[in-house]
Design brief:
alpha/beta; 33 strands; single chain; binds flavin-adenine dinucleotide; globular; five-stranded parallel β-sheet
Length: about 575
């Protein structure tokens, strides 16, 4: 895809720059690091280098023009490639006309819906509401519960469990702080835990139903499938006519073909969230986010938890330093973590599981949780053939599939399997389906969080990724030096900021510590708005807050963290 060349923000006060001259012509090949153009700010003149090899496919602003910082001034790309029509080149107010997506409006009756959404999860219900807000006549088909995986079997149930775990940990700290609890022994009543979780889920599912009702979305219960002429059949019998379709079928648990996997003692994340006991011992197969969060919860409820992970670290998508730190903390709390460990076989004997792994002793456990990832749920595709990529529905940046007029936001396209990414993809799909393709889902700055105790969160590049492409400088500050964290018995972890040495551009922020999942949103805003390290430091952060750790980590990038001892 074409790479934008933008007017850089080369200083804290720089708001615009003048193009002195382009050193390359349109159609000319440019090597990474070669000077593309010269610009002048009110203070300095500088050369702008190409960030990667490519052809200069367009110049949007010519010699002598003055341009605000971050505005696109040209594009690099493949030979003969067209410049993208979205984003800066196509303002939202005047969308590019729908091209491919025009096709299924043909031959539809006046009664046809403008949009039918299949699936009522984060991608589906948000696209239905967005489409209704934009004036569309909308229906939504859901085969199970509104709210999808996230509300019913994912984000919300796990966070309800993890809040219970937090309460238990806090009870553990109480005695150190002079709060005397007479009988410190506790048991976890899983029937009550399930009841609480279901109450939380029902509140939120009811909220989604209410929102859809308020926007006039017709909700149909049943399995939706797409017919050859791009309408939707509900439960194989009720035909709903529509001009456009949003297929937001989401994902389901992924299974592996290992002998013994069929044992009823091996659970999926769906099963464990309905289990009304705390198993004495629990093996977690897969040390990704879901496995580690549920491992944390059940370890705190009283299970002896062992995690088996094939890779060399848990939560491998996270920054290596953060992942290592999290492992140490969890091990200190009693979790056994086996990395570089491959599952071989599961044997059920005497009502227990014997789990065989390559090159290590067998592990015995009462139950196991299989958490190795998720695969798209393709039940809705019906009679239409879509282009797939490793079982995921392929979409372009407009969320449109290979079949014109059918969009597929959310987990079903496997791009970013997170609820908040699904929300954004759903909005973009609805906007494009109704108004023609113009809105783009930019997902590279989607924050991610793990709700362990302490939490972990990240946005942007990891240190390893950043070092591959940039000359970086790192800032770090520990929660151990933060007043609020110390006062709250939460002085564990750090914030790490990765910035580009040349322009002070923030490339990534990684947190392990209290409220990390909340704090990361400040970092997302900073990166999205292209606020430099120096500019961030102009913002006064309240005291005492956990956010001051973020502030100090940014200051540390420049060696200016006031609450860090002088570096030798
Ligand atoms: C245990 C767990 C914890 C998680 N925690 C988090 C978290 O903390 N934060 C986060 O961002 N993400 C989390 N996720 C991921 C998150 O749940 C998903 O990314 C999100 O739900 C994807 O939304 P979606 O709408 O694409 O799909 P889904 O939520 O899967 O919704 C799809 C819906 O479509 C319905 N459907 C499918 N096919 C049809 C059909 N043919 N007809 C009718 N209906 C159909 C399904 O019943 C379902 O309701 C978690 C996931 C799991 C499993």
């Amino acid at each position: 895809m074409a790479l934008e060349v933008i007017m850089p923000k080369a200083g804290v006060d720089m708001t615009e720059g003048q193009i002195v001259q382009w050193n390359k012509k349109v159609g000319e090949f440019v090597k990474e690091g070669e000077v593309l153009l010269e610009i002048m700010t009110d203070k300095v003149s500088m050369e702008l280098e190409a960030e990667e090899d490519g052809y200069l496919i367009a110049i949007l602003k010519g010699d002598g023009e003055t341009v605000p910082v971050t505005e696109v001034i040209g594009y690099l790309g493949e030979e003969g490639e067209n410049i993208p029509t979205a984003g800066a080149a196509a303002p939202e107010a005047s969308p590019a006309p729908a091209t491919a997506s025009a096709s299924n409006d043909d031959n539809k009756s006046d009664n046809a819906y403008d949009i039918i959404v299949i699936g009522g999860g984060p991608a589906g219900y948000v696209s239905a509401i967005k489409a209704a807000q934009l004036g569309g006549k909308v229906a939504l088909v859901e085969k199970s519960e509104l709210g999808g995986t996230c509300l019913n079997r994912g984000c919300i149930p796990t966070k309800t469990y993890l809040h219970n775990a937090e309460i238990i940990e806090n009870i553990g700290h109480a005695a150190n702080r002079g709060i005397v609890i007479e009988n410190p022994n506790f048991t976890v009543d899983m029937d009550k835990v399930l009841e609480t979780k279901n109450k939380v889920v029902n509140t939120l599912v009811g909220g989604v139903a209410g929102l859809l009702r308020s926007y006039g979305v017709d909700v149909h219960k049943g399995i939706g499938t797409i017919t050859k002429d791009k309408n939707v059949l509900v439960n194989g019998s009720e035909l709903l006519e529509t001009k456009k379709i949003i297929l937001a079928g989401g994902s389901k648990v992924s299974k592996i073909n290992v002998p013994g996997m069929e044992s009823s003692l091996v659970m999926t994340s769906d099963d464990i969230l309905e289990m009304n006991e705390v198993p004495e011992s629990l093996v977690i197969i897969g040390g990704g986010v879901v496995g580690i969060e549920l491992g944390q919860a059940f370890m705190t409820f009283g299970s002896k938890v062992t995690v088996i992970e094939m890779m060399d670290r848990i939560v491998p998508a996270m920054d290596a330093e953060v992942s290592k730190n999290l492992r140490l903390i969890l091990e200190r709390k009693g979790m056994t973590i086996l990395t570089d460990t491959k599952l071989q076989e599961i044997i059920e004997e005497d009502g227990k599981l014997r789990i065989k792994v390559e090159g290590k002793d067998d592990i015995t456990a009462n139950k196991a949780l299989l958490s190795i990832g998720r695969v798209p749920d393709l039940e809705g595709i019906g009679d239409v053939e879509f282009e797939l990529d490793r079982g995921r529905i392929k979409v372009n940046e407009y969320m449109e599939t290979s079949v014109p007029g059918i969009y597929a936001p959310g987990d079903i396209n496997g791009t970013k399997m997170l609820a908040h990414a699904a929300f954004r993809m759903g909005e973009v799909a609805a906007e494009n389906a109704l108004k023609g393709n113009h809105a783009v889902a930019k997902l590279n700055l989607t924050p991610a969080a793990i709700y362990t105790l302490p939490e972990v969160a990240a946005v942007g590049l990891t240190e390893e990724q950043a070092r591959e492409k940039y000359d970086v400088q790192i800032g770090k500050f520990n929660f151990a030096a933060n007043g609020r964290a110390i006062a709250s018995d939460a002085a564990q972890g750090f914030v790490k900021v990765i910035a580009d040495k040349k322009y002070g551009e923030v490339l990534g922020v990684h947190i392990i510590g209290p409220a990390a999942a909340e704090l990361i949103n400040e970092a997302s805003t900073i990166i999205e708005m292209e606020i430099t390290v120096e500019e961030m430091l102009k913002t006064i952060h309240g005291h005492p807050t956990f956010s001051e750790v973020m502030y100090e980590a940014f200051a540390d990038v420049l060696g200016l963290a006031v609450h860090s001892p002088k570096k030798k």
